[in-house]
């Protein structure tokens, strides 16, 4: 039995030495060679922004819109290169629109009581906003007003930045991010200046191949476009989406195609004073 004990002891000693030598020298050399060949698998990146993003999503689901907005703004500023940056920007845009285009109370809205002689266009001029925005904010189906109606009115200062390579139309409010819209298709001239400064020329509404006005009964169901001024020379036009699967109005020769629902919303927010910057 003594020889068996000696054998086990020898195996333990030499085996331990071999294991130590492998881990100290051989394994280190193998890892070094892998690193030199670029084969080393990087350690998993910790998703540090996920808990804050999930918390913001929960606030939005609970109807706490201003709290969700503040949480998303904080997250975007805190993690400018974060894994959920684009999702956070998309969600922030949805929350901003929910607040603006509804009777949800917020500090940037003013209550106005309709007086004798008031019409929607007159009120819009008074508050430097648009009739469409007042209608959407107050869930109005027509331009008719009644004396004593209480309207919530906001006074945003929108501008647009079109990012051609990123296929984004970014809407700013008072110079701060408001919402981004994803371009579905692009038909642009081959030669364009790297930066174009222009403005919205007009918002357009189409029904059965004809232009329709704000007061028309067909306006709400019309297809919306936004034509830019001559500095750019093209149009933001609607393409079919799940809400508008069939569009009668053919696309223009040049322009950017956005989902019809996005154009419907965007055309409510801008007007012919809205500045536009187009960059690569």
Written account of the structure:
The protein has about 280 residues and is of the alpha+beta class. It has 3 domains: about 50-100, no CATH class; about 110-155, Membrane-bound Lytic Murein Transglycosylase D, Chain A, CATH 3.10.350; about 160-280, Beta Barrel (L,D-transpeptidase catalytic domain-like), CATH 2.40.440. It contains 7 helices and 11 strands. An 8-stranded mixed β-barrel has the order 3-4-5-10-9-8-6-11. The chain has a two-stranded antiparallel sheet with strand order 1-2. Residues about 5-25 have low confidence and may be disordered.
Name the structural class.
Answer: alpha+beta
Helix content bin: 25-40%
**Count of beta strands:** 11
Low-confidence stretches: 3-23
CATH architecture designation of the largest domain: Beta Barrel
Q: From the 3D structure, determine the CATH topology of the largest domain.
A: L,D-transpeptidase catalytic domain-like
Our count of helices gives 7
State the major sheet: 8 strands, mixed, barrel
Radius of gyration: 29 Å
Strand content: 25-35%
Reading off the top of the CATH hierarchy, the class of the largest domain is best stated as Mainly Beta
Shape: globular
- Order of secondary-structure elements: HHHHEHHEEEEEEEEEHE
């Amino acid at each position: 039995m003594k020889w068996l004990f000696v054998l086990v002891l020898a195996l333990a000693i030499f085996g331990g030495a071999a294991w130590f030598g492998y881990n100290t020298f051989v394994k280190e050399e193998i890892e070094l060679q892998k690193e030199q060949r670029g084969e080393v698998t990087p350690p998993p990146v910790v998703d540090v922004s996920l808990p804050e993003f999930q918390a913001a999503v929960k606030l939005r689901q609970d109807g706490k819109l201003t709290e969700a907005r503040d949480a998303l703004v904080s997250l975007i500023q805190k993690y400018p290169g974060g894994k959920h940056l684009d999702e956070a920007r998309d969600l922030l845009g949805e929350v901003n629109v929910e607040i603006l285009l509804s009777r949800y109370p917020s500090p940037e809205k003013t209550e106005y009581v309709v007086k004798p002689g008031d019409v929607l266009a007159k009120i819009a001029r008074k508050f430097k906003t648009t009739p469409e925005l007042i209608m959407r904010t107050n869930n109005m189906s027509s331009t008719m007003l009644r004396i004593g109606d209480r309207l919530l009115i906001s006074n945003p200062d929108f501008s647009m930045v079109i990012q051609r390579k990123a296929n984004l139309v970014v809407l700013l409010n008072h110079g701060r991010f408001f919402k981004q819209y994803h371009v579905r298709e692009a038909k642009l001239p081959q030669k364009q200046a790297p930066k174009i400064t222009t403005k919205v020329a007009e918002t357009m509404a189409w029904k059965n191949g004809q232009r329709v006005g704000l007061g028309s009964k067909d306006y709400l169901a019309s297809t919306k476009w936004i034509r830019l001024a001559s500095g750019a020379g093209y149009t933001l036009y609607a393409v079919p989406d799940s809400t508008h699967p069939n569009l009668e109005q053919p696309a223009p020769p040049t322009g950017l195609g956005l989902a019809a629902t996005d154009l419907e919303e965007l055309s409510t927010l801008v007007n012919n004073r809205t500045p536009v910057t187009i960059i690569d």
